[in-house]
Amino acid sequence: MTHITASYLSFNFTSFVNLDGLTRDQLIGDVINLITGTSFVMFGLMALVIAGIRRRATGVRAIFLLGIWMIIYGSQRFNYNSLLLALEPNWMVVSAHYLRVITTYVVLVVALLTFRELTLRFVRKYLGLMAVAAFITFILGCGKYLLTGQQDWLVSYNQLLATASLFLWVPFLAFPKFACKYTVLRGRGVLLVGYTIFGLQALLVNLLRPLGYEFYTVVDDLAFATFILALGYVAMKGVYASERRLLSIENELAIARQLQFSILATTTPELRNLRVAAVYEPMTALAGDFYEFLSVDDRQAGFLVADVSGHGVPAALIASMIKVAAQSVMADAANPSQVLHRLQEILGNDLRGQFVSAAYLWIDTENHLARYSAAGHPPLLFWCAGCAQMNRIQSNGPLFGTPCDPEFPTHEFPFASGDRFLLYTDGLSEPESASGEPFADRKLDEIFRNHQTRPAAELAVLILNEVRAWPPASTPQQDDITFLAIDVL
Questions:
Q1: Helical segments of 80-154, H only
Q2: Terminal CA-to-CA distance of the chain, rounded, Å?
């Protein structure tokens, strides 16, 4: 890493503030340094932009650190540029002197952190320790310069760390077995070519420059540019590979989402004197909420709502299991307690640490009778039109998946024309306003009371809009929202 250690610290910086004293060769060299320094800074900034755009991609941190490395390297060309410094005011010349010392040491820290992002296991830890050692050298070296003005106190130690890190990469690039086991390199051959050119030139510089041999900076720049291009190629290849995997996962999730929607009831049951509206609003691509209708005839039907703990694929898989289980309890549809018992038995040990809350409502429009039972679920909301009052019906047993003995008591009650039922998951009841008030505490009562004449479908849309607007605008949806609004005509 010839550019990790500065080779010009002994240069007398006061000698190049006189523009008239510059020779033709110095001017040509300074112009070349301006061009190469600007190029490296621009490419470094481009790398930072790419890292910012793809900040969620795996491996993008290596792109970010690579950009910082190029910017520091390019700025070193400015700090030693006689032509540029001769045109600057004195305070900028003094600042450049301090920046030379800082970049001399800190460039090694950034380089080691960049390499660390490409390694695994003990090599990653080892490079991390080397980066810590380089950072300590940076602090001590800069501190020594501020206190005494001595510039090259720890430069030799910096060169030693740089050389050691160069030798460290030899077995990983030379032998595919090591590369596969301890690095995340893709395109090892490209990096091997770039590293060979850069490594040989860096070793020669670090070994021969202390003996008085000098090298043209353009040789340094070409070797470093070759290595940076190879390293950038490897890092970007890793980022694109991660994005392809992510895109594949997103496509699979989209298919899974379609399949999940397909297991939900596509139509509401056609029942005399009842109108039903269903709302299903997942928080993520896959949800843990579920609803199902168990229709017996045009006067009797059961309504099941369930909420699996968590989100994503595990919750969605359990929700699909509930769908299958619900089809096998049709014979007990009129008995809510038995329905929940059967579901608990069928799901059994397949929940594997997940928990499920469920609520089941049976409605008989011929006898104007309702039965309700639940398993750790929010209460059923029953709007009694005759008394203009909201009733919260609690009839709960334990959650599915708990070790408790399942007892699911059934609450039986009559209903009349104009009454309403609302079965829902806690994604509807728990959102809080800016003042911390849950949506179900007061707002649902208010909506039912103020919109008694609205049909179930309109009421459902109104409730959904209200619950979306209830939390502060900056608060994203915290849970899946599912509810069934049932009107008695």
A1: 82-87, 90-116, 121-148
A2: 82
Question: What is the three-class DSSP state of 365?
Answer: coil
The span from the CA of 123 to the CA of 399, in Å, is 47
| Amino acid, res. 188 | R
Could you report the per-residue pLDDT of 337-368, keeping only the tens digit for each?
Answer: 999 999 988 887 777 778 899 999 999 999 99
What average pLDDT does range 216-239 have in this prediction?
78
Question: Are the C-beta atoms of residues 235 and 63 closer than 8 Å to each other?
Answer: yes
Going by their DSSP bridges, the two strands 396-397 and 369-375 should be labelled as parallel
385 alpha carbon, distance to own chain's centre: 48
Return the DSSP state at 119.
B
E-state strands within 176-299: 274-281, 289-295
Supply φ then ψ for residue 2, to 5 degrees: -60, -25
Local structure of 277: helix, strand or coil: strand
Q: Which residue has the tokens 């609205």?
A: 454
d(CA 15, CA 327): 90
pLDDT tens-digit profile of 150-189?
877 888 888 788 878 777 777 766 777 776 777 776 666 7
Q: Are 38 and 74 in contact (CB under 8 A)?
A: yes
Question: Which amino acid, one-letter code, is at 397?
Answer: G
Residue 63: CB atoms within 10 Å: 26
Tokens for 124, please give them. 């990653």
Length in residues, the chain = 489
* Residue 136 backbone phi and psi in degrees, to 5: -60, -40
* Spatial contact of 57 and 243, defined as CB atoms under 8 Å apart: yes
Mean pLDDT, rounded, of the chain? 81
Q: Which two tokens stand for residue 352?
A: 């594997």
* Domain annotation for the chain: domains and CATH numbers: 13-250 (1.20.1070), 264-488 (3.60.40.10)
Cβ atoms 7, 209 nearer than 8 A = yes
β-bridge partners, 487: 275, 420
Q: Give the C-alpha separation, 419 to 168, whole Å.
A: 77
Over residues 441-467, mean pLDDT:
87
Helix (H, G, I), strand (E, B) or coil at 369: strand
Residue 436 burial by CB count (10 A; 0-12/13-18/19+): exposed, middle or buried?
exposed
d(CA 389, CA 306): 26
CB 404 within 8 A of CB 365: no
Three-class SS state of 1: coil
Closest CA to 238 of 456, 93, 50: 50
